Amino acid sequence: MTQRTLTHRDVLPPGTSIHLTRALLTPARPKALHSHDFIELFWVQNGSLRHHLPFSVETLTEGALVLLRPGQPHALQGRGDTALAVSIAIHPDLVQSLDARLPPLAFWQAEHAPARTHRDSRQLATLNRAAGLLERGPCDSLAAEAFLLPLLADLARTQTRLPPDAPLWLHHACALAHDPAIYCGGAAALVAATGQSHPHVSRSMRRWMGQSPTQYVNHIRMTQAARTLTCDSEPMAEVAAAVGIANLSHFHKLFRSHHGMTPLHYRQQFQRDVVQPST
Fold first, then answer.
1. Rg (Cα) of the chain, in Å, rounded?
2. How confident is the model at residue 275 (pLDDT cuts 50, 70, 90)?
3. Which of 20, 106, 111, 251 has the fewest CB atoms below 10 angstroms from its CB?
4. What is the pLDDT of residues 76-129, one digit of tens each?
5. What three-state secondary structure class fits 136?
6. Among residues of the chain, what percentage have pLDDT more than 90?
7. Domains in the chain: boundaries
8. What is the CATH T-level fold of the domain 2-163, as seen in this structure?
9. CB–CB of 28/59 below 8 Å?
10. 157 CB-near residues (< 8 Å, 6+ apart)
């Protein structure tokens, strides 16, 4: 398949920093791949599509969110009659500015392959509301950052640090794992969310992440528990129950392993230091 390169001058109207396009994709196989000198961010709004890359083709379903850095060729092909994609082109000057200011974020900074993640129905609705505001606005640098930064902040909160070429089902499941409905159910709930067998999920997570499903879920649990301990005074048993751990002794053991101190010590230190700093 041949390739061609688009420049930001081909796509972004003069004076704009960001441009949004909605496209109902046909089932016809694309004749060429294309790359760009700008970042392209796109998501599957409805249906499913085939994402053509130089050496592979992947199927993306509703809620898939993909970011391509300059020089990463691809093409999109609809599946069925309802494949709707939304594409965002971001001016290179804005990208350079954000690169200089943003903290490490695997999704934004994926250089060697497209970055992928998944938005659930609630997150997709939020993304589409922001896209609607973008469509009705001036599309200048302020509007661009107003659209991008909340999205990137949300992705940073739940980023998995998976390599871009990890399986899409694993990206999806690890993003879902930050939902209380998943992490409260432990490793079993995480595995169920993948639609894969437990041994396959365990092997895949060890390969791509270096940890087991239980270790991954427990890290999320202990991170959430630490946040809770710094902002309220709920009994410790309720803090533990809120992250899906009924055994208080087990909760103490996990928390100390992750944070190097007991939950009570953590609460005393960080609530005291914020509300009443030591003299």
1. 21
2. very low
3. 111
4. 999 988 899 999 999 999 999 999 998 878 788 877 788 888 888 888 999 999
5. helix
6. 60
7. 2-163, 177-275
8. Jelly Rolls (2.60.120)
9. no
10. 178
- Total residues found in the chain within this entry: 279
How far apart CA 54 and CA 31 sit, in angstroms, is 13
Q: Does the pLDDT value for residue 149 go beyond 90? A: yes
CATH of domain 177-275: 1.10.10.60
Helices (H) and strands (E) in the chain, counts: 12, 8
- The Cα–Cα gap between 208 and 203 comes to 9
- The two structure tokens encoding residue 262: 């007991």
Mean pLDDT (whole number) for 56-70:
91
Residue type, 216: Y
Question: Which pTM value belongs to this model?
Answer: 0.69
Positive or negative: CA dihedral 14, 15, 17, 21 = negative
β-strand pairing of 2-6 with 32-36: parallel
The DSSP line for 241-278 is HHTT---HHHHHHHHHHHHSS-HHHHHHHHHHHHHS--
